[in-house]
Write a structure and sequence with these properties.
Blueprint lengths: L1 E3 L6 E3 L2 E9 L2 H7 L3 E6 L5 E2 L5 E5 L4 E6 L5 E6 L5 E4 L11 E6 L15 E3 L1 H10 L1
Parallel strand pairs: 3-10, 10-11
Antiparallel strand pairs: 1-2, 2-5, 3-4, 4-9, 6-7, 7-8, 8-9
């Protein structure tokens, strides 16, 4: 699948692993996007940035980093520093598929009380995610 940032200076292609969308409620994603970051898992090695001159990488944690466009600020991807796991902003994809489904909410213990999704999702806490990242 192809994708791009808001201004089009960064174009990329990826191979998605499934059709499962994840919503992240962590404070970093909420601050970065002014909302919830919705992402989809990709094969980490499949992420191909066509011209990385506008790509910026933010070292956001001990194990993870975020890629974004330094011209328009679009959040593009999050990945483990060891490149064993990666996901992309589902809304940065050029043609989101109709069969995508919101299945997981992560950092659910950080979600503000003033919003909620109406569909059932798997809900993982910060501790759940930290444990998963340390095993990968």
């Amino acid at each position: 699948m192809n994708g791009q940032c808001l201004c089009g200076k960064i174009k990329f292609e990826v191979e998605i692993l499934n059709h499962e969308v994840h919503a992240c409620h962590c404070s970093m994603c909420r601050r970065q996007t002014s909302g919830i970051l919705m992402s989809i898992d990709i094969k980490p090695e499949s992420l191909k940035i066509h011209d990385d001159s506008f790509l910026s990488i933010f070292d956001s944690s001990e194990w993870g980093e975020r890629g974004f466009c330094k011209a328009c600020g679009t959040s593009l991807f999050w990945r483990l520093k060891n490149n064993e796991y990666a996901n992309v902003n589902v809304f940065a994809l050029d043609t989101p598929r109709h069969d995508f489904q919101l299945v997981t909410e992560i950092y659910i213990d950080h979600k503000p009380a003033f919003y909620a999704f109406s569909n059932f999702t798997q809900q993982l806490t910060e501790a759940d995610i930290v444990a998963l990242m340390k095993t990968e």
